[in-house]
Structure formats: C-alpha cells, structure tokens
Amino acid sequence: MPAPRTAPAAAPASAPAPDEPLDLAGIGIGPFNLSLAALAQPLTQLRTAFYEQRAAFHWHPGLLIEGTTLQVPFLADLVTLADPASPWTFLNYLKHRERLFPFYFAERFHIHRAEYDAYCRWVSENLAGLHFGHQVDSVRWNPERTVFEVDFTQLDRDGEAEALGRAYARNLVLGVGTTPYVPEPLRPLAAAPAVPVIHSADYLQHRERLLAAEHVTVVGSGQSGAEVFLDLLRSRPAGRERIHWLTRTKAIAPMEYSKLGLEHFTPDYTHYFHSLPESVRNELLPGQWQLYKGVDQGTIAAIHDELYRRTLDGGWPDAVLTPGVIVRTAGRVGTTKVELHIEHPHQAARSRMITDAVVLATGYRERSLDTLTAALDPYMRRDSCERPRVEEDHRLVLDPSVTGSVYVQNAERHTHGVGSPDLGLAAWRSAVILNSLLGTTAYSLPTRTAFTTFGLRPIPAGPSGRPAAQHPAGTTHITRIQA
User: Fold this and answer.
1) CA-based torsion, 177, 182, 188, 192: positive or negative
2) Cα 469 from chain centroid?
3) Rounded distance, CA 410 to CA 36, Å?
4) Could you tell me the mean pLDDT of each successive run of 10 residues in the chain, 483 residues long?
5) What is the pTM of this model?
6) What sign for the dihedral angle of Cα 198, 199, 202, 206?
C-alpha cells in the first residue's frame, strides 16, 4: 500500500501547464472520479488532473431529503475498501471535523446522504489536482504526439465562458455520470415552466411549490419515488393529503438486500458477468432490476406506518398507491393542471387523471459519451448493440494505433453488470484502473470477495490480476440467477 499522509493537502489554484502531458486526465468529478483522484494522490509517479463543469462538488442535491440515508454502509466511501489507511476515508473526515465520538455513540452503519455529500465535498476541497468550473468540450487522439488532447472552456462563477484551454494526457478516464430520464410523453410538459412537472433530481428545489399544489402525482417505483412520496405525505395535512403514486412495476417491491443477494455487488460477480457472452449479459440485466431499482424495506415500512397513523381517528388517508400502470400520454389542462392518460395492462383498462403537479422519479440513464468522444469514434470498437466494448479493467477497446488508454466509470453496466453504478465498488474499481494504468500492483486487491461461486467454469485471470476461481476439492457450487 502507498504510505498514507497524516493530513490532506490543499488543492493548487491552477491547472498544470497545458503543454506538459498528464499521465491521466479525468473528465467529470462525481464520487467515482473523486475516488480515483484520492487513490491516485499518494502515487507520486503519476501526474493527474480532473476537470468538472460545475463550480463545486454536489451529489444529488435535489434528493438530500432530511433523514434519508445511503443504501450502502459508510465503509463504501471513496477509498476504504481499497486502502483503509488512506487519509481520505470517511472516518478521517470525522476526525478532522472532531465528530468521531458522536459518530461512535450514534452507532450508524448507514449515514445520512447529506453527510456523505459533505464528506465528498471535504475531499474535493482539499485534494490536489481537481479543477472545477472547467467544461470539457471534446477529446481527440493526436497520433503525432501520441497523446490525447482535451479541449475545455473555463467558466466564471455565473457559468459563463471565461477562457478556452487545452490539456494533453497520455490516458483518460471518463466519469461523466448519469442524466435524469424523463419519459417521452412528459418531456414537453417538463420543459414548460407553468405547471410543475419536475424530475425527482430537482425535488428539493421545487418542494415548497409542490407542497402548495392541491394534488400531486409521483411517477416511478424506485427509492427516489418512495422517498418523495413519503416526504410529501408527512408534510400534508391528514385527510387532505391528495397524493397519487403511480408505478410501472407490478408491486411496490422491496430492494434485494439479503446478505447473499448483495454478493452481486462484489468484484467476484463483476468478473463473472464480464466473462459471459454479450447475449447472455443482455438477457440477465433486465431481470436483475430488484437488485438496484427496488425500495429499501425501511422506507416501505415508514410509508406504511405513516399511512396507518393517519387511520387512527377513522377513515383512510387521501393517498393512492397504484402499481402496474403505464403513463401513455400527457397534456396540459388550461394553464395550471396536467392530464395523465394511464393504462393498466393486466386489467386491459385505461383511464385519465387530473393533477396539479407531477414528480418524475423515473431514474437516470448513463450519460452518452458520443458527443464528448465524437473524434474518437473511428478508433472505438462497439458491440452488436453499438455500445462501446469495455475490457475487464474498465478500458474502452480502441484501435491498436491508439497507444493511450481511455477508462470509463459508471458507463459499463452492459459489460460489468449491476455493480457499475454502486458506490460500494467505487474504491475497488479505482484501484483496478490505477493498477492497469501503472502496469503494476499499486493497490493489492482481494482474490475472493464472495461466498457464492458464480458459474461452473473458473474465470481466467484478467488485467486486474485476479486469479481463476477455485472450487474446494470434491465440491461444485452453483448460483442460479433468475433472468
């Protein structure tokens, strides 16, 4: 392990000289690239810089609802699962804030989201080599200099263009994150300011307006939809809640959170999934939605408790939960209302409803890399669905004439499985990338991470250095995965 430092260092005020090639340039500073930057910091042989369009670090600010917690333990911070001695651990953050003893007595394994956001912001404000207010416009391969060219626009505090710049790097890592998904029927309404039709990513910014609306509809079955519904329910008067929750899923389904179920978020399962044929991976992913799209059981219990509490004086709360429905079309009624046309396929029934506001908890999609990497497209190798091919060490498969590497973070679910967007694999993936980049073991990684043995055939050792899985003598372990 790299020798840890006792205290973080302040970030420099300016980027490296643009004509000096970096060893690694990162595009985007979310938790995943922040993890990579933190683990790269003690590797003094590497020159790195990371660029982010936003003026400062923010992690889902519209969903930092009071009381909401991470769905992973605090050990899934930026670095601990790769280097628990790092100065950038969550526990070291608490130490610097003089909060270790309160945390100790709080006995919290799952921390508040707002606390995770504050922790990441602390790292981002103290870690060297992070450049906020830098919008990366394009990247290209320069075959003559054998480097990548990164063109960016430096933005002022108001987000306006201030200066143009260019950096050179031998390797890139793309961590541009995801973007809120708005279903096609609701896109025109979401773009119009008159009636609040907002994505849950912006919930807190519009919360007061939503609470003032006479009737609110929440669309979406996952954790965000449940948390928004619960927050609205708790904040509206008993008997006059006037909330409707529509979900496409057949039930308000709990997220898979059993001990063995969670082993789908281990490096072992990631290796197994990557080793499968493309057609098999495509079949598996849709059937695994409950591993990451369900609702935390604690949130489900809190919703039921709140609904039950509102029946104590007799009657039922004016809150409707309707799973198994699809929003087919939508339109505006007058200037202040929305009409939703919904369908229940199992009943072969259609209906319409009028509402004053809509919150779309309809999830996120991986942000397309096509615009950013347009100049690299001739070099990129794609699968049968025109998605980028990604090696086990998270490198894009490029033409051999490109001697540099392009790594991706949270853009490889189709090749690495459901763990790609999971915070619990952030530090491990960062370590894999750094080991691959250096061609040596900068971070020692575990050879086994799950009790479950996925598949019958041993998985060959890959670039991450993981040896083939071994079965105990005389036994065979099979895990059945429901597609």
Assistant:
1) negative
2) 29
3) 13
4) 46 53 98 98 97 96 95 96 98 98 96 97 97 96 97 93 96 94 91 87 96 96 95 95 96 92 96 97 93 92 97 94 95 90 96 96 89 93 96 97 97 95 97 97 96 86 49 37 34
5) 0.91
6) positive
